[in-house]
Amino acid sequence: MDVLRPKILNIDGRKYRLNTDDCCLNEYVEPEIDKAEKQMHNSKASERLPSYVERDDIEEEESDDLNIYMEGDRCVLKLEAPNIFYGLIIGRNRENLKNLEYQTRTRIKIPGMRENNVITIKGEQRANVIAAKSKIDAIIKRGRFKQSMTHFVSLPMVNPIVIDNYLAFKKIVLDECGQCRGVTELLFQDQFKLHLTITCFVLCNAAEIKRAIKLMEQPMNLKSLDVLVSGLDYMNDDPSEVNVLYAKVESPEIQMLADKIQTFFQDCDLALQPRNNHVKLHITLMNSGFYNYQSSVNGDSGNKSHLTFDARKIIEKFNDYTFGTVQLSEVHLSQRHTFESNGYYKSSFVLKL
């Protein structure tokens, strides 16, 4: 948007600047409507020009089983949405909500933060209600991508042999490469949390977690596999400035399985969109993010958010290190920054293969 020449929206003689950028997610505006404004809105509604509604959006939504019902002469739709996104929908000074209502010729009630997470959309025409829902869904989708992931689909890569070999790797790296810049014990992954990440989610409440579980319960025809964990690699191009050092998994079978799981969830509006169609198979061993996270937990405000470490000597000495073979028999919906009694991430759901 050109801030010097913004688009102007004229509503009942009042001019509004039409913002294209979303407001801050954490900012919430109370949804009560001023009575005078509401009366003016109702009295002028018949004088407004018909709004333009994208037919493609409507036709796409009309194929869905939307629970739209009649309340008098109005079509009504109840839409569940996490309250973390209400600030985006309402906007500063209620601008987003006003524009949304005007564009779709609907009335939209946003519940209070302590009420249930149900948005009510009312309109004279079914198409307008569906259009309002589509726009709200788009706002929530954009807002979801700005949130940090809360859950992820993981494949546990742990057994006694792999754990022992990993701990031996950790010890010898610290002994022989501990003087390399940035190399510290805080960089290492917990031995009980070694895993492959397939798909990441932002699940904001219990209802969304339940939706993700329901998806995982659908048949994907996955089979158990033996996975060899061997060799080292790193994420960026410069081995002297590494953020993530990982163990490699090179197997066409596991690649096909991981890609199949990712594709299954790709159209889910709860999942963060992948960068490409193929999962990058990697088991994180050392990550500068672990150091930053642990420092923040310990109250160290002086940690560097862009910390890297020099991995040249590690790669030179241990490039062909073999950690062992894991029998892949489970797919987990894991919760970030948590752990079970066995040391692995807490799981909202476990799919047995």
TrEMBL record:
Keywords: RNA-binding. Residues 73-141 form the K Homology domain. InterPro entries: AKAP7-like_phosphoesterase, ASCC1, Cyclic_Pdiesterase, KH_dom, KH_dom_type_1, KH_dom_type_1_sf. GO terms for biological process: DNA alkylation repair; regulation of DNA-templated transcription. The keyword Ubl conjugation does not apply. Pfam families: AKAP7_NLS (PF10469), KH_1 (PF00013). The keyword DNA-binding does not apply. Gene3D superfamilies: Cyclic phosphodiesterase, K Homology domain, type 1. It comes from the Eukaryota. This is Activating signal cointegrator 1 complex subunit 1 isoform X2. It comes from Aphis craccivora (Cowpea aphid). The lineage of its organism: Eukaryota, Metazoa, Ecdysozoa, Arthropoda, Hexapoda.
